[in-house]
Design brief:
The protein has strands at about 10-20, 30-35, 40-50, 65-70, 75-80, 90-95. The protein has about 100 residues and is an all-beta fold. It is globular.
């Protein structure tokens, strides 16, 4: 053992979300995501985004998401900043547990 902490030892999980946003950064359809490893997500960090509509379009600022719990291990995406509207985005989010 090398006494290092790796990703598997931390209370976090990476989830993939595909979404289209309106002009205010709100998903055009209800967008849900689930966790399998966390009891409860306390925060999130966007670690990767990809524009699936136009590969030449990139985020305008560092993306940030807001979300709310719907039930145990199920969450609703409320808002994303930093991404252009009307394009389809693939987002990888690191969820951080308590």
């Amino acid at each position: 053992m090398d006494n290092r902490i790796d990703f598997e030892n931390l209370n976090q999980e990476v989830v993939e979300i595909t979404v289209i946003l309106d002009g205010n950064g709100i998903p055009t359809t209800t967008t849900k995501f689930a966790t399998t490893a966390l009891d409860r997500a306390r925060g999130a960090e966007v670690i990767y985004v990809e524009n699936l509509t136009n590969r030449g379009t990139f985020p305008t600022t560092a993306p940030f998401i807001s979300f709310e719990p719907i039930s145990t291990n199920l969450y609703k995406l409320n808002h994303i900043t930093g991404l252009q509207s009307s394009d389809k985005w693939r987002i990888l989010v690191k969820l951080i547990g308590n």
